[in-house]
Structure formats: structure tokens, C-alpha cells
Amino acid sequence: MSVNAIAAIENRMVRVIQNLHSNRVRVEVLPRTMSAAVPGARRRPDGTCGSGYSPLRISVEYMVSPMTRATATWSGTKVLFDVDSESGHKVQIDEAPIFGDDAAMRPTEMLLGALGACTGLNAVLLLKKFKQPLRSLEVEVQGDRDEEWPKAFNEIQITFHCTWEGDTDKKLVEQAIDWACNRYCPIHATLSRGVKIEHRRKDSH
């Protein structure tokens, strides 16, 4: 393979890697070994093979980004907002009349729902890992709010309603629920520890 051909491959690989990194994917470019080449291919000093075969193969590993993003866009109707997630999903947020049309969850309800779903999915995964016979799970989340604006939550209660298909190990069940809340749920950790929030404005015409 000529030097120019190798350079062209390397340039294409750089573009591929850059695109994949933008989608939170890590790419490792590794040499192809002799076993992957055709019979009679000559081994290079670095262990890769020629004979018309590309010396490159790709190992792809998905990565969890430390940054999470969601965008709330005003629909133009009263206070109805469309919320788009970085993962490609969409929900709506609204308020009760007279400000809204009661077409979707309130922001405060969405917050409680996120906490319930986050702790709940971790509970399901842990209970399965601990081989507990879970049949169904409902996570009820209630929040008490201040009377004065901004009417922040001052206390939140989470109740796990579980039904089972057989006998359970109570110690393992309690451990799973505790870890689901206090070890693996980023929503629970954020609300219980507090988080620094900053805001800014960008104008356009």
C-alpha cells in the first residue's frame, strides 16, 4: 500500500473518530494481525499484514458522558413547553388554567416522577441481581412544599409498593432499595445533596 493511500485512510479515520466522539463513542484503532490476512501475506516488522488488506480495525466502546442536556422550547401556546432530551426523546410540560391548558405534567410533578423512575429502575435492576422474585413495582413520590414563593420542596417521601411471586430475603430487599436511592440514583443524590445552578441569557434576532 502506498504512502498516499495510507495517509488517505488515516485522514478518513480521523474524521470518523471525531464524529463518533461527538456522539459519546470511543474508538480504538488497532493493527490487524496475521491471522486476519490472506494466506501468504507478509508480516511487517510491527506485526501487521499487507497484501491489499487494510492494517486497521476498529474497536468501539460506548461511553457515559459526564454532561447531560435537555432543552425546553416554548410552543407559543400559553405556557406549554416541549422538552427534548439529548437521547432523542420528548415530553411536554404545562400548567393548570388560567396560565396553561392542563395539557401535560407540571414541572414539579415531572421532578417527582424523575425521582421515582430513577430510584425505581435501579431497584428493579438490583432486585433482579439479588434474585428476588419481584412481580411488580410502583414507586409513589410525594413532596411537601413551602407556602411562600418559590414554593420549594422542603421534604420528599418515596414509597416502594412491591408485589412478589414467592418468598423474599428481607435483608437483600432492603439493601436493594437502599442502594437504589442512596448509591445509584443521580436524581436522588442531586436533590439530597444540593447542586450549584447558574443561569445566563443568549439573545438572537
What does this structure look like?
By secondary structure, the protein is α+β, with helices and mostly antiparallel strands. Among the domains are: 68-104; 106-203, GMP Synthetase, Chain A, domain 3, CATH 3.30.300. Helix content is 31%, strand content 25%. It contains 4 helices and 7 strands. It has helices at residues 3-22, 107-129, 170-182, 186-193, and strands at residues 25-31, 56-62, 70-74, 81-85, 90-93, 134-145, 153-164. A 3-stranded antiparallel β-sheet has the order 3-4-5, with no helix packed on it. Helix 2 (107-129) crosses helix 3 (170-182). It is globular and about 60 Å long. Mean pLDDT is 81; it is low at 16-39 and 47-62.
Offer a concise description of the structure.
Helices cover 31% and strands 25% of the residues. It has 205 residues and is α+β, with helices and mostly antiparallel strands.
| Class computed from helices, strands and strand pairing | alpha+beta
Largest sheet: 3 strands, antiparallel
Q: What is the CA-atom radius of gyration, in angstroms?
A: 26 Å
Low-confidence stretches: 16-39, 47-62
Write down the CATH class of the domain at 106-203.
Alpha Beta
| Strand and helix order | HEEEEEHEEHH
Query: How would you sum up the global shape?
Result: globular
Strand order of the largest sheet: 3-4-5
Helix content: 25-40%
CATH superfamily of the domain at 106-203: K homology (KH) domain
Number of strands: 7
Query: How is the CATH topology of the domain at 106-203 named?
Result: GMP Synthetase, Chain A, domain 3
